[in-house]
Design goal:
single chain, alpha+beta, Ubiquitin C-terminal Hydrolase UCH-l3, 3 domains, six-stranded antiparallel sheet
Length: about 325
Amino acid sequence: MSDTAGWCLIESDPGVFTELIRELGVTGAQVEELWTLDNSLFDSIKPVHGLIFLFRWIGDDQPDGPIVRDSRIEKIFFAQQVINNACATQAILSVLFNCRHPSIELGSTLTEFKEFSQKFDANLKGLALSNSQKIRSVHNSFGRSGSIFEFDDSAKPKSKDEEAYHFVAIVPIDGRLYELDGLKEGPIDLGLIKPNTDWIEAAKPFIEKRINKYKEGEVHFNLMAVVTDRKLILERRLLALQTEDLDKDTKLAQENSLRMQIDDEDDKMKRYKIENARRKHNYLPLIVEILKLLAKDGKLVPLYERAKAKTLEREKQKMGKT
């Protein structure tokens, strides 16, 4: 998709989001998927700088707190969503632009954008984001390469029952918890974070409330966390271990454990690159050529008939079970 085109849908996946922010020039951060709200998982990925929550959008959904309209808005980077399909990247940037952790550096592209748009109101921030060719180009590079043909989405019939999904960010800022939803007028104040407590504990009730809106067995949400680069943390621990006063065996065991975890992080990043390369590759020309060869050899129709027969047989078996 070219820079002059719109914003494409991208997959809600930690590998996509991690590579996306790194291609934007961010260092010291990565994205982890959360499959539970247990403290043990959060403890293993600390520090957590913000949450990215994907959920099935309900049009009349009411916010869980008041919209911020006072002077606090000057300290919160909030952009309204003014274009379709941009909410994933917008939620990621909402976390990064409001993060003050020293381990995370935005890089020149995002630093320049933040400084350029800092004094804009929420709507102008959204317009600036939607018109950023660099950010849009990186975002669109993670869209699935689906076809050698171009389709006009506006010409597609829309079902009234078609489900829409939306990303929001949940972040701690100056001792309070906020939800940053580009479809709202401003940041949503979710309340005070109790002193000497992890802000994640304050966020859990709001996440659980959103999840509980769906029927049991339905999967209409996904939760991810923006965290400090795991390899960076492990390497720092390994370096600090050299100066600790431990017996030889204990130190060796801890060193080996840390090195194994570092290797796991390297393997994960390599896997992300492979998966993203496959997402971006257009396999349709290859499929078309295979179909042409099968047709030329007289194998295409028999294969189709066999597949059709198997499908009908499976449907009969399902009907029989019901």
